[in-house]
Amino acid sequence: MKRFVLLAGIGFGTCLFVRAQTPDTTLPQSTQRKASPTRQAAHQLKTLEQQLHLTQDQVLQLQVILINRDIAMDSLRNNPSADHHGESRARRGIMQTADQQINSLLTDDQKPLYQQWKQARRAP
After folding, report:
1. Mean of the pLDDT values across residues 83-100?
2. pTM
3. d(CA 115, CA 43)
4. What percent of the chain lies above the pLDDT cut of 70?
5. What is the 3 state secondary structure string of the chain?
6. Which of 57, 64, 97, 118 has the greatest number of CB atoms lying within 10 Å of its CB?
């Protein structure tokens, strides 16, 4: 009988421990771990630098564009409003502005590579 109680106690303790280790999915997205806007921008910058063969000047300009875009998007995420349609419009506006700025700094040879990269990101 003592063994049964001991095994039941160990099993119950293990279940509690495992339950405590699972992430809380009820928390808002902003409190769960997510890459910072600067880290996201740095990762994307590295990828684009390699794929588009950017000059050092282009890299610096692109870095500013990506960080500004990601900070603006992060701000929208962290400050949600009841107007989901307005938020969606604001997100699209931020992305379109960044896209226009990126296109303006690319050469004619780099623009098709950038379009290919964007389409590859959209594909599942």
Report:
1. 91
2. 0.66
3. 18
4. 72
5. CHHHHHHHHHHHHHHHHHHHHCCCCCCCHHHCCCCCHHHHHHHHHHHHHHHHCCCHHHHHHHHHHHHHHHHHHHHHHHCCCCCHHHHHHHHHHHHHHHHHHHHHHCCCCHHHHHHHHHHHHHCC
6. 97
Instruction: State the residue for tokens 């964007």.
Output: 118
Q: Summarize pLDDT for 44-81 with one digit per residue, the tens.
A: 899 999 999 999 999 999 999 998 998 899 888 888 87
Quick one: tokens of 114?
């950038």
User: Cβ distance 54 to 107 under 8 Å?
Assistant: no
CA distance 80 to 53: 37
